[in-house]
């Protein structure tokens, strides 16, 4: 995909945030050996994010859809972009008081810096706004608020959105860095579980701004969002 490299860059930024927190007075780094290397465990990353460690849900057992959804949302990294990040005492961390509520509506963003040469995209300090060749995108409010979130969505709308890569399954495209093309490979059962978990969250009123399209004149000059 044309902008897929942007997603890897975004993942690298999130990894830097997490490791920065680890280097401060955070919890002891739990590791496991993988291919001869000692890497942090999922429990460690969950602890840094302020969440309780989520146990894997094994297929075939009696599974609570909400708990299954919580597990999938955690390992899927949804908090990396849909929860605003703030600077905490141990480094950058997600603000779980606004969990999965998207880009803060009350945060007035300046114009994105120009993208020149190999510096093709930029991200806000909150990790909820991104600028690149697609314009400026803002992480959506995933909480079940009826006016600004997913409160009036149905399972069908949610699944169609992920499967098609379009808002409501039929409207505008989902913009980078949303990795919908990865999530669409999930089973219907898993997507239903994710939706069940999102609908179980406390609703947060937060009208996320609409995307800002790229400016043709700016593109011609080799700068994005300036």
What value does the Rg take, in angstroms? Answer: 18 Å
Largest sheet: 3 strands, antiparallel
Identify low-pLDDT runs.
Answer: 1-40, 218-226
- The portion of residues forming beta strands comes to 5-15%
Element string (H = helix, E = strand): HEEHHHEEEEEHHHH
Estimate the helix proportion, in percent. 25-40%
- Strand ordering within the main sheet: 5-6-7
Descriptive keywords:
two-stranded antiparallel ribbon; 7 strands; 226 residues; disordered N terminus; alpha+beta; three-stranded antiparallel sheet
What does this structure look like?
The protein is an alpha+beta fold and 226 residues long. It has one domain (4-220). It is 33% helix and 12% strand. It is built from eight helices and seven strands, in the order αββαααβββββαααα. It has helices at residues 4-23, 42-48, 65-75, 79-82, 155-164, 180-183, 188-200, 216-220, and strands at 31-34, 37-40, 85-88, 91-94, 122-123, 129-132, 135-138. The strands form three sheets. Strands 5-6-7 form a three-stranded antiparallel beta sheet, with no helix packed on it. Strands 1-2 form a two-stranded antiparallel ribbon. A two-stranded antiparallel ribbon has the order 3-4. A hairpin with a 2-residue loop joins β6 and β7 (135-138). α3 packs across α7 (188-200). The longest helix is centred in the N-terminal third of the chain and has 20 residues, at 4-23. It is globular, with a radius of gyration of 18 Å. The two termini are 25 Å apart.
């Amino acid at each position: 995909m044309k902008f897929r490299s942007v997603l890897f860059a975004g993942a690298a930024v999130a990894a830097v945030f997490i490791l920065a927190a680890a280097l401060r007075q955070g919890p002891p780094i739990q590791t496991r050996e993988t291919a001869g290397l000692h890497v942090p465990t999922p429990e460690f990353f969950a602890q840094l994010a302020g969440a309780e460690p989520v146990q894997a849900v094994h297929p075939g057992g009696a599974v609570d859809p909400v708990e299954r959804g919580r597990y999938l949302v955690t390992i899927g990294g949804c908090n990396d972009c849909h929860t605003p990040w703030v600077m905490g005492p141990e480094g950058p961390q997600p603000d779980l008081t606004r969990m999965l509520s998207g880009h803060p509506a009350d945060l007035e963003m300046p114009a994105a810096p120009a993208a020149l040469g190999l510096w093709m995209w930029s991200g806000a300090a909150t990790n909820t706004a991104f600028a690149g060749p697609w314009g400026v995108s803002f992480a959506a409010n995933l909480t079940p608020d009826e006016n600004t979130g997913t409160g009036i969505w149905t399972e069908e709308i949610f699944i169609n959105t992920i499967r098609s890569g379009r808002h409501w399954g039929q409207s505008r495209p989902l913009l980078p860095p949303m990795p919908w093309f990865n999530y669409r490979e999930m089973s219907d059962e898993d997507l239903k579980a994710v939706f069940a978990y999102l609908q179980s969250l406390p609703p947060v009123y937060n009208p996320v701004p609409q995307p800002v399209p790229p400016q043709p004149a700016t593109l011609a000059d080799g700068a994005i969002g300036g």
